[in-house]
Amino acid sequence: MNPPQPRTPRTPDPAPERRILRIRGGSAWDDRGPRHAPGPVAALFDTRDRDRFCPGTLLAIGPADEIDRHEAWAHTPPEQRQTIDRPGSVLLPAFVNAHTHLDLSALGPRPPSDPADPSAFAAWLDMVRLGRPAQPDAIAWSVRLGVELSIRGGVAAVGDVAGAAGGQTNLEAWRTLADGPLLGVSEVEFFGIGRGEARGLEAATALWRAHEAGFRIDPDAGVRLGLQPHAPYSVAEPTFRALAGEAARWNASGSPALHLATHLAESLAERELIAHARGAQRTFLESLGLWDESLAAQVGRGRHPIEHMERALVSAAEGGSPFLCAHVHDCPPEWEGREPEALLGVLRRAGVSVAYCPRSSDAFASPDALGPHRYRAMLDAGVNVCLGTDSLVSCPPGTDRLSPLDEARRLHARDGTDPLTLLAMCTTRGARALGIDEDRCRWTVGGRMLGVVAAEGATLASVMGGESEVALLPTTTCC
I need a surface site. Which of 281, 293, 335, 393 has the fewest CB within 10 A? Predict the structure, then answer.
C-alpha cells in the first residue's frame, strides 16, 4: 500500500470586498434617547456580516451630511455602496416580541365577545381548543403566517410558545420558526398537575434530553429551545422546583443557560384555585379527572399564586435560569396581611422578567377583575418588564400584524407612559428576557443590530402617539 500523500494546502477563499449600506432617515432613537444632533440622520453598515435582518456591523451614525463624508463611505467604490432612504421616518432598533403564540395565528383575531360572561368565555376556549392546528403541516403553516405578521410589525426576535396541542409536547413550531428569518426562543409547552404531575415532568425531561443541541443554540444566532411549564394551575409546583434544580445542574456544566418561561398570576380564577382550592379551575381539573390528594395538599393554603411559586422562581434565578413570566395581571400591593408590596418583592428577588400583553389583557377584561396592571410599579421596583402580543386570537378584530409597538401605543394612549420607557419594553428589555444581547437593540458602533425599523414620524413621541406604519428594512438586496 502506498503511504498516504500529504494534502495540498487549500487555498483560502478571498476575503469578501467591503460593501457599505447607508440608511438615512429623519431621526434615530434607541432606549437611551436620540442618537445624533437634530436634523436628518444617516447610519453606515459594513454588510459583509449581515444576517437575517441584521444589516451588518454599524460603522457610524450621525448627522447625514457628516456621514456622507465618512471615510468608509467616501472611499468605497460606488458599485459597492447602497442607500436606503426613509425621509420623514424615525429609525429604530427592530422589535422583540417577548410573548406570543405563533401556532395559533391561523385562527385569526377572534377575542371573546364578552369575557365577563362565563358562557361566552367558555365558548371562546372551546373555539381555540377545537380549532387550533394539531397536525404538523397545519402547525407549520400557522407559524409561518405568524412570522409574516411579525415581520410586518417590525419584529426580528420572538419568545414563542410551542403549544402542546392535545396536551402533547410538540416541536413542529420550533422547527418551522428555526427555518425562518426570526431569532429568539421556542418555549415548549407542557402540562402536568394532580394525577398527571409525574407524566408531565417525565415528558419535559425526556424531550430535553432527546434534543439537547436545540437547547444549546445561541439565541443571538438562531432559535433555541426553552421549556414552558404552562402555568401554576396546570403544572404542579414541585415540577417547577424540579426544573429549577435541573436547570442549575445544566447551567453549571457550561451550557448556555436553560430558558424557562410560564404564565403567572393571569386571572382571578387562578387566585381562587391556588389560594382557596375552589372555583372554575378546580371544577375544570375535576372534570378531567386530575384532582387528587397530592394537588389538594399543594393548594388552598391562602397563598397568592406569586407566593405559591416563590421557592421555584427564586431557586431558578439562583441557578442561572430566571423565569420569563407572561402576564402577571394579579399583583396587588396588599395581600392577606402580608407586608406592603410583598408580592412585588418576590418578583424582584426572583429576578423574573414580566411579559405584559396590554391588548390581550383588555380583551379578557383583566383590569376589571384585578385592577390596572402594575407594570410601572414593577419597573420602579427593578423588575424587568417587556412587551408581548400574546396570540393573534386575542388581538382586536382587523389586526393584520403582531407588533409590540401596538402594545406600546395602547399604554401611551391610556397611561401616558414615557416613550423611551416603552421603546425599551419593545427592544432591550425583551432581549434581556430572551437571553439576547441588549446591545443588539441599540445603535452601538461596532455592534450588530437585530435589524432596523423605519416608522413614520418626526420624533419617538410622534411614533408612540400615532398610528403610522412601520417597516423592517430589508438587507438581502444590499449591494
Answer: 293
